# Entry
Amino acid sequence: MQTFQGILPFLINPRFIFFVLIGAVSGLFVGAIPGLSVSMATALLVSITYTWQTGDAMATIMGVYVVGVFSGALSAILINIPGAPSSVVTTLDGYPLSKSGNAYKALVYATWYSFIGSVFGLVVMGVMAGPITTLALRFHPMDYFLLALFGLTTVGGLTSRNFSKGLVSACIGIFFSLIGMDSVMGTPRLTMGIQNLKAGVPTVPALVGLFGFAEVLSVVYQGISDGKVLGVHQEKVPLREVFREFPRSMLYCLIGTFVGALPGAGGPVASFLAYGQAKRIVKHPSRPFGEGAVEGIVASESANNACIGGALIPMLTLAIPGDAVTAIILSVFYIHGLQPGPTFLKTGRVHFYEILAGGLIACMFLLLLGLLVAPRISKVINVPKRILLPIVVVLCVIGAYACNRRVFDVELMFFFGIVGFILRRRGFPTAPVTLGLVLGGMMDSNFRRAVSLASTTPNPLVSMFGRPITIILLVLTIAAILGQTPAGKKLFRKA
# Structure
C-alpha cells in the first residue's frame, strides 16, 4: 500500500509520463536497429541527461531500458539479427514464424509477453527491495568490499566464455577507477602527469566510448551487411489464443527475475534457461521448437524482460549492478549525487518510486508501441550502416563534450572506444570494465576503512572477517572464483 501511494504521484504526472514516452520511443528505434544496443543508448543518454532534473533523467532512462530490451526482438523476428544479446533466443522461433508469413503473430506474442515479463520483474523489485535493504543495513566496510568483489567475479564469469578474460576486464576497470587524487594521502595517483586526470576518469566519456564508439568500430571492422526485412501483414490473433501461454510464462518470468538479480547474468542467460525449460515442459508445441513455435518466443521474451526488475534489485539495494545497463544507470545515480545501497530506500525513497513508476509506465508504452508502431517500422530497422554510423559517431562526440565542455573528454571517449574495440576483438567483455570503473572507488575506500578499523583491535583478522555476513560473502566470492576452474565446474556439476 505504501509503495502504491509512493508511485501514484508519478503515475499521474504529465511531465513524468512525457519523459518516459521520449525514452520509450527512443528505446524502440535504437533497440530495433542491429548494430545499436540498449547499453549504447543508455550511455549516450547519460551525457544528454547530465544537466536534467533527476526525475526527468530517471523517467527517460527507464523508458529506454524497458522498451529497448523488448525492441531487440523486432529485428530478431523480421531479419534474423537480434537487436540485443537477450533476443538471440527469440530468433530461433521468431524468424521461422515470420518466414512462414506470420510475422505479425510473432510480434504480438513478443509484445504481450515482454509486457508481462517486465511488469512481473518490476513488481518483484517493489516487493523485495525492502527486505534486502534491511539485511544490507547490517553490512560493515569489509562486507561492502567483498560484495563488490563478488559482483565483479560473477560478472567476469558470466559475460565471457573465458572466466580469466572477464576478470582481466574487471581489473582494467578498477585500474581506471583509481586514477586521480588519493582520498587518503591527498596526492595524485596514476595520473601520469596529466593535469586533467587529477579529478579522476570522468564516467560519461568512458561509458560513451566503451559502448558507443567501440560499437561503431566493431560494426565497421566486421562489415555487417544490411539484412532483408520480411513483410508484416496484419492478421487476426485472438487474445484468448495469446493468453493460453500465460500460466507457463509465470515460470519463465520467475527464472528471468532470479537470473537478473544475479550480478552479471542478464537477459541472454535467462532466455536460454527459460527456453530450455519450455522445451521440457511443453509436450505439444504449436510447431516444433526451432521451426516457429510461439512457445519459444513466449519463453525468451518473458524471461529477458523479467530480468529488468531483477537486475535493478541489487543495483538499488546493494549498489551492485545486475547487468551492463544497470551499471550505466548506477553511474547516472552517482552523476546526479545519489547513493544507491542499503540506505537508499531511506535517503532516496522518492527516487526509488521514480524508477518503479517509470518502469511501470514504460511497460504500458511497450504494449502500445509494440502493438501499434512496431509492425510499421520494418523499414527503419534496415537503415543503411553508411547513414547510421556517422550519426552515432557525432552523438558520441557531442555526448562526451557536453558534460564538462572539454575537448579532453572527447579524446578520452575516443581512447576508451579504441580500448573497448580491442577488448572485444580479443574476446574480453566490456561490461566488467564498466563495473570495475564504477565500483573500484567503493572497493578502495571500504577496504581501507576496514583495515583502518581493524588495526586498532587486538585481533585484526577476526575483526575484518569474523562476522557471519562477512564469512558468507567471502565463501560466495571464493566459490564464484573456484566455480570457474575445471575442478570446480566438475564439482558443481555433480552437486
In short: The chain is about 75% helix and 0% strand. The radius of gyration is 22 Å. The first helix runs from residue 2 to 11. The chain has one domain: 2-494.
